[in-house]
Amino acid sequence: MTPNVSSFSGGSLLLAWQLKDKRVLIVGGGDVASGRIESVLVADALITLVAPSPSLHPVTQKFIQESPRITYHDRLFAGPSDLDGVHMVLTALDDVDKSREICALCRDRRIPVNVADIPPSCDFYFGSQVRSGPLQIMISTNGQSPKLANIIRRKIEATLPEHAGEAVEKVGELRTKLRDRAPGVGGELGKRRMRWMVDVCTAWDMEDLAALDEEMMIRLLDDGWEKNTVLKPDDLAGLKRKHPAAAASSASPLSAAVLPTAVGFALGVAATACLLLAPARR
User: Fold this and answer.
1) Distance (Å, rounded) from C-alpha 251 to C-alpha 244?
2) Which domains, and CATH codes, for the chain?
3) Between vectors from CA 176 to CA 173 and to CA 180, what angle results, nearest 5°?
4) Among candidates 143, 165, 111, which has minimal Cα distance to 277?
5) Span 254-272, pLDDT tens digits
6) EC number(s) for this protein (predicted)?
7) Cα of 200 vs its chain's centroid, Å
8) pTM of the entire structure?
9) Residue 99 pLDDT > 80, yes or no?
10) 91 or 251: whose pLDDT is higher?
11) How open is the CA angle 73-77-80, to the nearest 5 degrees?
C-alpha cells in the first residue's frame, strides 16, 4: 500500500531514549515531579533534584530516601551553574516565568528540556506508558491530551496477556544466546537471525515464551537454529514447563472473540519489542 505522504505531519518522533548513568536535572518536587522521577529511575539515570523541602510530594520524599541515584538539593533553582554536567532537564513548577527561564538556559546550552504543561517549551513529551518488565508501550498525543492518552493506555493494557513482559524478557535471553552462537552484524547471517527470531515469536504463544528456561533455549538452538528450522512448543513436550499461573488462567473462560484479538495484538508487540528494543541491551 502506497503511503499518503501528505498526512506525514503533526506528530513526534517516538524514541526509546537511553539514559543509563546520564545526569538528569529535575526542578520541582510535587506530584508531577514524582512521576518524572519514576520514569527516569526506570531508565537507570542519575538524578539531581532541586526543590524546597516544604514542596515535596510524599512519593518524591520516598524516592529521595530510598534511591541512591538521587542527589537532592533543598533549595530553588540557582541558575546556569545547576546545568553543569547535565544531559537532560525536566521542570515541574507552578511558576511559568521560572520554567521559561530554565527552558531558555537549556536551549542556549543545547540541553534537551521538558517543561511541564507548556508544550511549546518542550523538546520532547512524556506519554502514557504501559510497562511490564522490559516491555514498554508509549501512547503519545503530542502534548495535546494527556488524559485521553491515559484512557487509551488502559484499553491497550487490558488486551495484553498476563505474561507479556516475562515473554519479552525470555525472548531477549534467547536472542542473546543466538548472537553468542552466531556473532556478527548485518549480512546474510544477520538476516537469518532476524527471520528465525520472528518465526519463534510468532510460532509460540505468550505463556509458552514466558515459561522458556535455559534447557529449552539450548534445545531450540541445537535442534532449531542449527538445523534451520523452528521447533514448536509440542516439539519440546518433554521439557516444556507450564507457567505457574497457567492453570489459573486456563480456568477462566474468555470470549472466543476477545482472546484471538488480545493474543494476536500482544504477539505483534513482543515481536517488535524483541527486534527493535532489544538491540539497546547489547
Assistant:
1) 13
2) 18-126 (3.40.50.720), 164-281 (no CATH)
3) 140
4) 165
5) 334 443 444 444 444 444 4
6) 1.3.1.76
7) 22
8) 0.68
9) yes
10) 91
11) 115
Per-residue pLDDT, averaged over 74-84, amounts to 97
C-alpha cell at 169: 524478557
Spatial distance between the Cα atoms of 145 and 147, rounded to a whole number of angstroms: 5
- The tens digit of pLDDT for each residue in 207-231 reads 999 999 999 999 999 999 999 999 9
What type of residue sits at position 266? A
Residues annotated as catalytic are 117
Reading the block at residue 215, the C-alpha cell is 534447557
Q: What are phi and psi of 130, to 5 degrees?
A: -100, 125
Task: Quickly tell me which residue has 530510598 as its cell.
Answer: 66
Query: DSSP per residue over the chain, as a string?
Result: ----GGG--S---------TT-EEEEE--SHHHHHHHHHHHHTT-EEEEE--GGG--HHHHHHHHH-TTEEEE-S----GGGGTT-SEEEE--S-HHHHHHHHHHHHHHT--EEETT-GGG-SS---EEEEETTEEEEE--TTS-HHHHHHHHHHHHHHS-TTHHHHHHHHHHHHHHHHHHS--SSHHHHHHHHHHHHHHHHHS-HHHHHT--HHHHHHHHHHTGGGT----GGGGTTT----TTHHHHHTS---TTHHHHHHHHHHHHHHHIIIIIGGGG-
| Amino acid at site 132 | S
